[in-house]
Amino acid sequence: MTGARLAGAQRSREALLSAAAAVFVESGVQAPVRTVAERARVGVGTVYRHFPTRADLVSAVYRHQVTECVDLAERLRAQPVRPVEALELWVAAFLDFLVTKHGLSDALRSEDPALANLHALILDELVPACDALLRAGQDAGEVDPDVAALTLLRAVGNLAVLGPGYGRAEARAMTVRLLAGCRTSP
Amino acid sequence: MTGARLAGAQRSREALLSAAAAVFVESGVQAPVRTVAERARVGVGTVYRHFPTRADLVSAVYRHQVTECVDLAERLRAQPVRPVEALELWVAAFLDFLVTKHGLSDALRSEDPALANLHALILDELVPACDALLRAGQDAGEVDPDVAALTLLRAVGNLAVLGPGYGRAEARAMTVRLLAGCRTSP
Amino acid sequence: MTGARLAGAQRSREALLSAAAAVFVESGVQAPVRTVAERARVGVGTVYRHFPTRADLVSAVYRHQVTECVDLAERLRAQPVRPVEALELWVAAFLDFLVTKHGLSDALRSEDPALANLHALILDELVPACDALLRAGQDAGEVDPDVAALTLLRAVGNLAVLGPGYGRAEARAMTVRLLAGCRTSP
Amino acid sequence: MTGARLAGAQRSREALLSAAAAVFVESGVQAPVRTVAERARVGVGTVYRHFPTRADLVSAVYRHQVTECVDLAERLRAQPVRPVEALELWVAAFLDFLVTKHGLSDALRSEDPALANLHALILDELVPACDALLRAGQDAGEVDPDVAALTLLRAVGNLAVLGPGYGRAEARAMTVRLLAGCRTSP
DNA sequence: CATGAATGAGCTTTCATTCAT
DNA sequence: AATGAATGAAAGCTCATTCAT
């Protein structure tokens, strides 16, 4: 009775999330709420019911992906590869995320206080995940100890912003070079 | 009489340019046109007369700064330093520009087709300037021949986007590391 | 089983009435229906089932209080006090009602045709109650015969609207003076 | 050149004021800004240009009328009538204002902090004007010294709220009785 | 040429009301 | 009967852009 309703609500929520993800990719995180609603075939009111503020929507859209990144970091640490290689793999995967959902890097860049949620999420989850990989590399003497996780994340996040003449391949190449520059000089 | 008119018009144009530069630094390139007009002590109509589209204004504002960068590149090439050092100096200076006038990196990043003017300007002037330095380094065997000027410029432009926990110092450090990763492996 | 249902429905209805009364006091009769539903721990649908229009809810909320006023009038008429004194006591009590449940005076003032119910209630019950007291005073030669019950009720209802610099004490004082002005000149 | 523009703007401003006055009478001070704009045959933007907040509009609409009331008070004080009569005349005139522009009494009643302007206006101008008349009556021993100007103004403001069965005539009669109740007992 | 008033589309957000479950 | 998700019409406010003077 209530179950069916709840199931419907859950479906709405998911429809909204995927609609929003798509819209953010196409038009950036600043896209009108109405656009998201239309994409999800839903009234605007429904958007606000599920996500009272736009920031809630943005955060929700990316929370899932952030979590995946965190999980990946953990899996990589368990792999029998050299720490620096794990870091490289992880950063490459992170970049792919960002590049695919280019809305996310917009969101990361934004200083809008309403996105504090999302920023907190990053600080609380992504930074530690990256930090673990980074420290492993530093402890192994492969990575320069001056590199901080947050700084690296933001830098990669920035390198992920594509534009004319600067596509995925370029972003990847630059990220690789940035990481190379983070290794200890032999 | 026409002379006076022209002089007045010229004055307006310059007032607008410096007002816009200031406003862009404070509030980004998206700042309301009205804000620029007020800062220049001029009616909005005047803005539109001189710069029919916002992109015209943005381009004009940064054209001058782009030119300075180009000039710097030429001066550096004449210096008795190793090519890779000249490149590093230039990139550092370019970064400082971007970081100081953070409006510019917004503008560079923007895919707004209306900014085609500005993009063209970069392709036509900034890329060749950078390219000259880059090629010198590559010819000297100091820089990896796979690095393209446009790619490097965009990457540095991206690294220049500041945010919480990622200030000037971090941007500089990351840029240095990126360049380090662009050098030929010994 | 149906009995239980009915009992449940009755409970809902009463929960709604007291929730609405509280909400109206806090936020006025214009408060969102949703607020009332939440206060009553009930779904909005239930509000609409019991009270198809907002006016039904408002009327129901105040019917009970109107009835109390009517009863008081009857009790006062039976008291061994001079008619004009009975009138004064009743008006004072009525004012206290209004001032305490400031939602009611909002409702009385409203010209919203949807509140016709409530207005009818007043005409049918409150006016006659007041009228009886009034006439007694007029018959005793203590109250000016030109004073009409409805007019007096509305005036007192209006005087009950508090605001900055005009609190309960002021409302009471003004009501007393209004009534004094309704007495026959000696 | 600019003069004509200014004249046009002035005309707009006045059109807005009279449109707003009319709309407020018909629908209360809470009427949508858009309604006022339409009534004035003007875009919403124009309303906001002239009156950045709704409160500014409301205040402007009534400022003029408040001033007239104040002027009237001064003229009446100069008349060769007994103080209490002057007070009665003034209150009657004030009531007529309120009753004619019934939006004003809504506005006076409102506790919306955005209307602080208007409230201040009343406290600063209307209260002293009323106070002068009141004190004259009190000094002459005709009016009860316990009556305060603000209280009286609010009470009259309240009595001015019309409704079904309570029209202008009733409001006037009640106001007269209220004032009668404010006189010193002989 | 310069001005700035006017315009109105567009965005966010709220809430009364309906209706499938 | 009860629920609460969904809907969509308002309403407030901002700004890019036009155009009469």
Structural class of the secondary structure composition of chain A?
mainly alpha
Low-confidence stretches of chain A: none
Arithmetic mean pLDDT of chain A: 88
What is the fourth-level CATH superfamily of the largest domain in chain A? Tetracycline Repressor, domain 2
Order of helices and strands of chain A: HHHHHHHHH
Strand composition percent of chain A = under 5%
Fraction in helix of chain A: over 70%
Q: What quaternary form is this?
A: homotetramer
Examine the coordinates and then state which fold CATH places here, giving the name of the CATH topology of the largest domain in chain A: Tetracycline Repressor, domain 2
Largest interface: A-B, 31 and 31 residues
Short recap of the structure:
Helix content of chain A is 75%, strand content 0%. The first copy, chain A, contains nine helices and no strands. Chain A has helices at residues 2-27, 33-39, 44-50, 54-78, 83-100, 102-109, 116-139, 149-159, 168-180.
3D architecture notes:
- The structure is a homotetramer of 186-residue chains.
- The first copy, chain A, has helices spanning 2-27, 33-39, 44-50, 54-78, 83-100, 102-109, 116-139, 149-159, 168-180.
- Chain A has 186 residues and is mostly helical.
- The first copy, chain A, folds into two domains: 1-52, Arc Repressor Mutant, subunit A, CATH 1.10.10; 54-182, Orthogonal Bundle (Tetracycline Repressor, domain 2).
- The longest helix of chain A is centred in the N-terminal third of the chain and has 26 residues, at 2-27.
- The mean pLDDT of chain A is 88.
- Chains in contact: A-B, C-D.
- Chains A and B meet through α8 and α9 of A and α8 and α9 of B.
- Chain A binds a DNA duplex (21 and 21 nucleotides) through α1 and α3.
